[in-house]
Amino acid sequence: MVCSKCGENNEGTNFCIKCGEKLIILPPGRMFIKVTGILYIIFAFIGFISGGMLLSSLNKLDPLFMYSMEIPLSVFKTITIFSMIAASLQALIGILGVKYCNDLEKTKVLLICVIGLFAMGITSIIITAVYGLLSWVSIFEFVLPILFLVGVLKNLKAIGGLNNLKAKGVN
């Protein structure tokens, strides 16, 4: 490990042999989790604002436009509200990712978050498929959760896997 204070290379010690600084082991998946967490926060903010703007203007939309979409207004509102709820959950997961990216003991929390991200993505694809709105772009729904999962798996590997996490009594 390299000391963050003086740059000395230290192997097998908890403190720097040159300056005495406590050495901190940074989780290997921290950057995947942190970057995707920040992206989730940004995209959630954009999604929440655009969903709110869309909901506030739905009653003012031209009826011919709504007719051309072949989707009832109530269904369109439901999809928009679901998107806003998903955006809120993505913001929460993004915040947790940024907050816990350096904490190996919170790996289980992040694993639950990534399972939730995949569940939201699958639900979104099902809803869009039911109403005939599914396209190949829907696959991008899983890019960020996969990157988040890579970070979580790297952290799990660093602590010896999920069984080791359970053995330590981490909740």
Give a topology summary.
Blueprint: H1 30-57, H2 63-69, H3 73-100, H4 107-130, H5 143-158, H6 162-167
Short description:
The chain is an all-alpha fold and 171 residues long. The protein has one domain (30-167). It has six helices and no strands.
Explained architecture:
- By secondary structure, the chain is mainly α.
- It has one domain (30-167).
- 64% of the residues lie in helices and 0% in strands.
- The protein has helices at residues 30-57, 63-69, 73-100, 107-130, 143-158, 162-167.
Low-confidence stretches: none
Percentage of residues in DSSP E strands: under 5%
Helix and strand content put the structural class at: mainly alpha
Average pLDDT taken over every residue: 82
Taking the sheet with the most strands, its summary is: none
Supply the number of structural domains. 1
Radius of gyration from CA coordinates: 22 Å
What descriptors fit this protein?
171 residues, mainly alpha, 64% helix, elongated
